[in-house]
Every structure is written in structure tokens, then in C-alpha cells.
What does this fold into?
Amino acid sequence: MNFSVNVDAIYLGKKIDVHDAVEDVAKAGIKNIEFWGWWDKDLDRLCRLKEKYGLQYVGLCPRLTSMVDAQYKVQYLADFGEALKAAEKIGCTGIFVKPGDKTKDKFEVQARNMMDILRRLVDMATPSGITVLLEPVSFLEAPDTFLGTSKLAFQMVREIDSPYLKVLYDLYHMQLDEGDITRKVLENLDDIGHLHAAGITDRHELGEGEIDYGYVFDAIDRAGYEKMTGLEYFPVKDPLDGLKKVIFEKNYR
It folds into this structure.
């Protein structure tokens, strides 16, 4: 498995500057980094850290507005454009996107609005070779989200049919709502561009919960998955010790 570290999640609430957190992770020999927001980062400093340690930035998020509410279309595209510029500057290979909360409009209207925006995002990102990564999230954690099922996400990705649009399949979120995560990943492997992982149900270390990540990762690995699996959890133990245990020791318990 190829792992990346979401430093915003892993160091959430820790008394450390995010850039120092990136450097701590890099000094430990971990090369693949992802973020939530880009606007609270010093992009020039991230570029220097990338060059110094040979890092690869694999994902960041735009500001979250709405893909499904037509009144926010212009704003969403503008926000994505800013995130795209940030990704280009630091050499980030992916942008994580979510549609936002559902509205009172009919499902078909919201889906059409979302598909229109997704096509625009792909058109914007393709020239830079950056992949748009569409993330469904759990209704349990985000009860008003429009995209709470992986089935709909896969349908949309397949309809647009671009190598620069894939699903970000979050094993934590989808286990909460859907279960059967190993089979769902294996059946849709070609349409997945990124995975996220965290322990169930409190989103702590991978071994703190009901998912047997050893079984899940072994099955996915044997199926030929070579893209990133982002560690996006809130550690209760030392962050670096936990990361090294997963990434270098392949110990998920």
C-alpha cells in the first residue's frame, strides 16, 4: 500500500505549526502529504519543504460551497480555480471535492447542477494533469449532504468518463453508512483515485475499531491498487509513532 498523511487531520489540536508538522513527517521518511485547506498554508514554504525532502503533495481541498445549488455555481468554480492554482504552485496531484448539502430542489435538478460543475472542474484541471477526487461522506456525520452513497459517486464518475475524475473512497465514511467496503472497493477499483482510512467509530488510529485493515489492505493490494491511501484520523497516541507503525511496519492493529 502507498500511504499519504493528512497533516491537518493527524495534527489537529496539536500545538504545532502545520509546516513544522510537514517537516516532522518528512524527517521520519514519509514522503506523501495531503491537506484539507490550502488557504491557511504558506505555499512558498511548502515548496521549499518539498524540494528539501523530496515530498509529493497528493491532495488538498477547495473552500466548500455547493455544487448542487445553482446560485453558488460561479462561486464554486472560482473557489476551485483558486485551489487549482495552489495545487499547481506546490505540484499537488489531486483536489478533493464534495458537493455540499442538498437543497429543497428535486434530486434530478441537484444532480444535473452537480454534473455540470463536475464537467467544468475536469475541464479546468485536465491541462495541469491534476485529478479531481469526488468524495461521498457518511450521512451519519453529514446528514444533509447530497452525496452520501458511493453508488451515486461511481455513477457520476463513469458518466463523465475522464481519467482526471475519480472517486475518493473514504473507508471510514463508507463503513459507517454502507459496510461491505472491501467488495465495493474491489468492484470499483478502476474508478477510485484515492482512499482514506481511519478507525471506526471514533476516527482514531486504524486499529482502534471494527475494521480489520490488515484484511482490507491485503485484498486491495493483491487486486493491484497502487494509488494513495490517505491516513486521515485523529490520533490518541503519539502521531509519528502511529504513522511509522502503519507506513513502515505495515502494522494496522
Observations:
- The two ends are 16 Å apart (CA to CA).
- Residues 8 and 49 are 16 Å apart (CA to CA).
